[in-house]
Amino acid sequence: MPRLTGRLVVASHNSGKVREIAALLAPLGVEAVSAASLGLPEPEETETTFAGNAALKAKAAADASGLPALADDSGLEVFALGGDPGVYSARWAGPTKDFAVAMERVQDELAARQAKDFSARFVCALALAEPGGAVDVFEGEARGRIVFPARGLQGFGYDPIFEPEGHTRTFGEMSHEEKLPLTHRARAFEKLLAALS
Ligand code: IMP
Predict the structure, then answer these.
(1) pTM (2 decimals)?
(2) So where are the chain's domains?
(3) What is the layout of strands, in order, in the sheet containing 119-129?
């Protein structure tokens, strides 16, 4: 497993995720460089699991940049929808990445099923890859429930319709600092740090 020192590529083109991962890396003295700023291409997510897609993205960025790379594949699983949108979370927002569209689809699909159970979780797989080397994957989750109407303008993606367990506000209503420790991403990151130490 690579040591986390110096420069590391954050293999994501999602600025919300890059910001959260950079904040998690900052206390370690690691300089996070985004894949977009290095002009790296965004590989197609062809796997059917979060872990598979995270590994694919980390490996592509590490091989292309010659630096260790950390990739996140994450998404929302709504239990009444059989785990959808799951690995298709970004795709539900369509080509313009409009999450108002994606959140409306969650609402429509729950209504179509006359769902009574609004429980859901965010899942994050973090993959750490060395150029030409091994890839390690760590998973974390954040449990909560889906609420309508959407509330809050902070965060990104599905944050405005996700209320984490033990809270009465959505991720969209929380500041970056308040949301971060509650996230699937922070939990996956804790596992990665435990494995490195
Ligand atoms: P991907 O991992 O790039 O395939 O994208 C996963 C998608 O899941 C993102 O575009 C977001 O819509 C959603 N997602 C992942 N993590 C979060 C989060 O912390 N809040 C809100 N939406 C998220």
Answers:
(1) 0.88
(2) 7-196
(3) 31-34, 7-10, 69-78, 119-129, 135-146, 162-164
Distance CA 132, CA 118 (A): 43
* CATH architecture of the domain formed by 7-196: Alpha-Beta Complex (3.90)
Model confidence pLDDT, tens digit, residues 116-147: 999 999 999 999 999 998 999 999 999 999 99
In a 13 Å sphere around the CA of 146, the CA atoms on its Cβ side amount to: 28
Tell me the best of 47, 76, 77, 97 to mutate to test the pocket of ligand 1, counting ligand atoms within 8 Å of each CB and taking the most: 76
Which of 72, 73, 84, 159 is catalytic? The answer is 73
Whole-number Å distance between alpha carbons of 136 and 49: 15
β-pair partners for 141: 123
